[in-house]
Structure to design on (268 residues):
DNA sequence: TTATAAAATGTTATATTATAACAAACGTTA
DNA sequence: TAACGTTTGTTATAATATAACATTTTATAA
């Protein structure tokens, strides 16, 4: 039964495979072009797969880039606590795994006492490589 | 001279006025419809104003909603450290002012030692009102 | 004050991102 | 097998954002 829950449909698997073997985040229409040989023909097919993959935590959306990246963080299986570093120069994106950070943010509550079920954090700067080249 | 720097152009002022008097974030095309009586006719005129207003920190973009909100935080004048709470139910958005949080995030560096010039954090949950109604 | 550079404007067209609506097939479970 | 939820396929369209180019306004400084 638990195996069923992890069973991906055909389109979902195709899209996930592509995203997982990519070096960085992929955009929806770039995904579409790359899976057309596999029989996926329309944007909706891609978006529906993405929606499901996000929901189950296999991928994340990088909101500032409208792009999708595979989850590499075993701690965020339910996809409710995500943090990324994004290079302003080369656009390299990396998911941040940091227990302190995620603990800090998961426990954060604002002045009104509102607590949160989910957060997404995007950091911007220059990655090591790009900093050296400056 | 410093006054010149803060001087907004006509279109920028029109767009900013609208966003500032709004109760929540506005979408670009909703802004467009609402400023057409003021003579702004095309999306680009809106997007250009938005771009400038973001750059100088007068407004922020809520990335997960593709919407724009006035800055209410004197501490983020350069718009490089933003945090928001977003209600999943009523979509109410509020900028979070919290010195500890911003200090924590501004000083954060990842495992590789990469430091960041900018971050954007979006929290999701139920606001007080919506929590009560459940 | 004039030239010149930088910023802003106006405009048309188009690119990019995402969803609506509907019909059909599939997989699971009662 | 009947019923349900999920996934698929498909066409059309909505929503978001930028390219390219010509012109005008504003700031700077020679």
């Amino acid at each position: 039964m638990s195996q069923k829950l992890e069973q991906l449909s055909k389109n979902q698997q195709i899209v996930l495979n592509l995203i997982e073997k990519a070096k960085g985040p992929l955009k929806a229409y770039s995904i579409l072009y790359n899976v057309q040989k596999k029989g996926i023909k329309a944007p909706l097919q891609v978006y529906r797969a993405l929606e499901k993959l996000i929901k189950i935590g296999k991928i994340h959306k990088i909101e500032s880039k409208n792009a999708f990246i595979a989850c590499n963080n075993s701690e965020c299986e339910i996809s409710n606590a995500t943090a990324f570093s994004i290079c302003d120069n080369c656009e390299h994106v990396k998911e941040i795994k940091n227990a302190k950070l995620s603990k800090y943010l998961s426990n954060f509550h604002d002045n009104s006492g509102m607590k949160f079920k989910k957060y997404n954090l995007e950091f911007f700067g220059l990655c090591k490589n790009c900093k050296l080249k400056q």
